[in-house]
Design a protein that fits this description.
There is one protein chain. The protein is of the alpha/beta class. The chain folds into two domains: 78 residues, no CATH class; 235 residues, 3-Layer(aba) Sandwich (Rossmann fold). Helices cover 39% and strands 17% of the residues. It has 13 helices and twelve strands. The strands form three sheets. It has a seven-stranded mixed sheet. It has a three-stranded mixed sheet with strand order 8-10-9. Helix 10 links the parallel strand 4 and strand 5. Helix 4 runs antiparallel to helix 5. It starts with a helix and ends in a 14-residue tail after the last strand.
Length: 341
Amino acid sequence: MSKLEATARQAWSRLPRRLAISRSAKSIKGLIHPWLRREPLRPKRTVRTLDELDEVLGYVDEASRVSDDELRRVFNTFRMELDLPMPSDPHSEEYRLAVMGVYEWLHGSPYELSNEKAQFEFARFVDVPFPYSTGSGATVGNHLIAIGHVIRTLDLPTKSRVLEFGPGWGNTTVALAQMGHSVTAVDVSQQFVDLIQARASLVNAPVHTVLGDFSKVDELTDMFDAVLFFESFHHCTDHQRLLTSLDRIVVPGGRVLFATEPIEDDYYVPWGLRLDGESLWAIRRNGWFELGFRRSYFLEALRRSGWSATEVACPGMPSANILVARRDGSRPRGRFGRRPE
């Protein structure tokens, strides 16, 4: 990188975000684009200590002031490797507590549910929520492809009953409600609950919202034709219990969708904290809980809870693949289960 380009990139990274994303700033950026071109791809940096992690997260902070695309580029420049002596049984409570210990080390304090609660400029995001707020063609396009794949895979009759856990910005939630489905959305953040209500009212598509975490599954009294986790299941601190509890709220013949979840053939442990750049930033900076799963482990966890699953691929975008779980007909319903009259 030339000194001139380095100076241009540094100056741009120091702009306040409100200026960097303004229309005039984008016009200027277009004129000086040759000075701000991306650096050649290099091998990912591997970090192993918290000091090294904090160093690279400083680069992430600078990138966030440039653009969403630059932020995501920098996310992909580093990862972490840890020597983790995990308990042998990934289905045990001992293993889960070990994962929580790794989280405490990475974040710097024990996990608290309040870490997941969102804070943002409410009025602005009613009209322009994520991903549209990023202005990134790649981010918006990929998100819309994933949402379309979810809706196509659900393929539900009109007026079906759908429960979505962790809907966040509510893009899929509102779309399903606009289709005429009866949608219940459970989110831990009051701001997201209020945002979904505001966005749904704009298009006259009622959504029933519930404030709470994944444990709300034990308090719900309705049953649903489909339960959806879209980029949310990996935030659950006790996913094994959640899988078992889902039985009591899914009608016979219903299904559970795990969409765009980090379930990989060669994940480095049966399940545990993700160590890619974006996840490390989410854990260290924001305190979010970010899990990944080895596919063989996840399928076995489903089987132990009485579910079987098939995968529905998203053409051209493997990260948006969906696991569709149905009740294993060879097994009786779980101890939480009940059947409709």
